[in-house]
Write a structure and sequence with these properties.
Chain B: Pfam families: Bromo_TP, TAF8_C. The complex is a heterodimer of chains A (136) and B (386). Chain A has five helices and one strand; from the N terminus they run H-H-H-H-E-H. In chain A, helix 2 packs across helix 3. Chains A and B meet through helix 1, helix 2, helix 3, strand 1 and helix 5 of A and helix 2, strand 1, helix 3, helix 4 and helix 5 of B.
């Protein structure tokens, strides 16, 4: 901690911003429940009696999921836009946005997570069908 | 799977859980993973997806579990580096920065930046401001549930003298000797004769069985004070338990035995672990501990060593126990209705082998229930063979 008067003001602002943010965290309930986050944090060795910290991690995780999901959504929409023809069923399918392994692995690759999904298993009756329309 | 509904997904996911290659591939984590799946599904729904592939959902929930785990780990390391035990908000921010450094964030290249000012934090603040507040779909209890552990007091606390000078009195008391030693001298004689005949493993098993037997005997005695008057109640309850689904039977209180059904099958059924436990309650109800124990001991041992060697002894024991059977013929009939398992001794040996591998109590109870229901059929067969 430096006692430079000029940076003190800056720090003060940062601190207030931070404490405001943490206070706002208490009002916002993240979708990921606190108990789940607490469980995994405890598993990794974090002792934190402060609920705000748990909320912070929960919010960060939720943001991560939202980013991945939105990337996957963009991939999905891009694929549907390129595939759409004059057929009626494709237009009907447009309304159904499905999170598929393919889109997910594409979006996760940008985050450094390599997820490889099997194209098909030779003993399944739906072998070789287009993955977007295949039921799992 | 293209389910639209959220309610189905949780059960569906649970039932379709496949083994994952992640390091959280353990049964104890199933509950948390299921919750994570629901949460992830809710978030994805808010982003705009209408349905999910099951494997994609599982993968994503697995990933966020690892995400939380690594954020926590990094935060913990940062705290320890700073000489603290508890993680700080700054530690968490640093952990998030580390995770986000692959993708990059605003201000990452600044050498002298303050953690609080980093792009990561700003992003999160913006996210909190923009995102909708979606409640988690279910009420999540505190988990994992910590079981209360009842401490056995020390020698000093209980006021007992330790059995040897070398044992300090602040150590916990020994368990009661009956639980690990043979009970009576008469029993000892027959047992020693039989022990000589068998292998070490078998004798070890029998000792364990006997100690379990004794332990439960004493518990049962403590619990069943009323002796024969309880017979009626037990019988009634037993009949009910046999009739209804064993998995739906009411939970037991301490000291009770699941197999009050046992009196039916008890005398003829000697080849089963359940029989041993049932013998206990039977003994207490009838009132002659030692004699029944010693009569059963040879049969118990005989069962372990082999079926054919002990036929005669079995006959004798059967004979002795006949008078006890006088009630419960109806339950026997009902059991006939269930699927009869006409396996031979091989199944018994399998059962015996599996006794010492089963940690799961629920699984034990299940197996016991199954054995009870199947036993009368086996016994009819055995009798026929005899």
């Amino acid at each position: 901690m430096n006692h430079n008067p000029q940076s003190d003001d800056g720090k003060h602002d940062d601190d207030t911003a931070l404490s405001d943010f943490l206070a706002s965290l208490m009002e916002y309930t993240p979708t990921i429940p606190d108990e789940l986050v607490e469980h995994y944090l405890a598993k990794s060795g974090v002792q934190c009696p402060d609920v705000r910290l748990i909320r912070l991690v929960a919010v960060a995780t939720q943001k991560f999921v939202a980013e991945v999901a939105s990337d996957a959504l963009q991939h999905c929409k891009a694929r549907q836009a390129s595939v759409v023809k004059d057929k009626r069923d494709k237009q009907q399918k447009d309304k159904r946005l499905i999170l598929t392994m393919e889109d997910l692995s594409k979006s996760l690759r940008e985050y450094g997570v390599n997820v490889k999904h099997q194209e098909y298993f030779a003993d399944s009756p739906s072998t070789g069908i287009d993955p977007a329309s295949r039921d799992e | 799977m293209n389910d639209g509904g959220l309610e189905n997904r949780k059960e569906h996911g649970k039932s379709q859980k496949q083994s994952k290659s992640s390091k959280f591939n353990s049964k104890s984590d199933d509950f948390a993973l299921a919750i994570a799946k629901v949460a992830v599904a809710q978030v994805c729904e808010s982003v705009g997806f209408q349905s999910f592939q099951n494997s994609a959902l599982q993968t994503l929930s697995d990933i966020i579990v690892q995400y939380i785990y690594s954020v926590g780990k990094t935060a913990n390391i940062n705290a320890n580096l700073a000489g603290r035990v508890e993680a700080n908000v700054l530690d968490v921010f640093q952990g998030l920065e580390e995770l986000g450094s692959g993708l990059g964030f605003a201000g990452a290249s600044d050498a002298d930046r303050c953690v609080v000012n980093s792009g990561i934090v700003r992003d999160i603040v913006h996210y909190v401001g923009d995102a909708d507040d979606i409640q988690f779909a279910y009420d999540v209890p505190q988990f994992p549930v910590v079981k209360e552990w009842k401490e056995t007091g020390s020698f000093w606390e209980k006021g007992e003298e330790p059995p040897g000078e070398h044992i300090p009195n602040w150590l916990p008391v020994f368990p009661d000797p009956e639980t690990y030693a043979a009970q009576s001298s008469e029993g000892n004689e027959t047992m020693s004769v039989l022990n000589g005949e068998k292998s070490e493993l078998a004798s070890f098993e029998t000792k364990m069985e006997r100690s379990l037997l004794n332990l439960q005997q004493r518990f049962a005695c403590n619990g069943n004070e009323g002796g024969s008057s309880r017979d009626g109640g037990d019988a009634g309850r037993a009949r009910e338990a046999a009739e209804s689904n064993p998995y739906l039977a009411a939970p037991l209180h301490f000291g009770e035995k699941e197999v009050e059904v046992s009196p039916v099958v008890l005398p003829v059924k000697l080849s089963n672990e359940v029989a041993l436990r049932n013998i206990v309650s039977e003994n207490c109800i009838v009132g002659n501990h030692v004699s029944v124990l010693e009569t059963f001991a040879p049969a118990i041992e005989a069962m372990k060593s082999g079926f054919h060697d002990s036929e005669n002894r079995q006959k004798k024991v059967l004979h002795n126990q006949r008078p006890m059977v006088h009630f419960k013929i109806e339950t026997g009939k009902k059991s006939l209705g269930s699927a009869p398992n006409l396996n031979s001794q091989k199944k018994d040996l399998e059962k015996i082998a599996s006794w010492f591998g089963n940690d799961n109590e629920k699984y034990d109870k299940k197996r016991r229930a199954e054995k009870i229901l199947k036993e009368p059929m086996e016994n009819c067969q055995e009798l026929a063979q005899l």
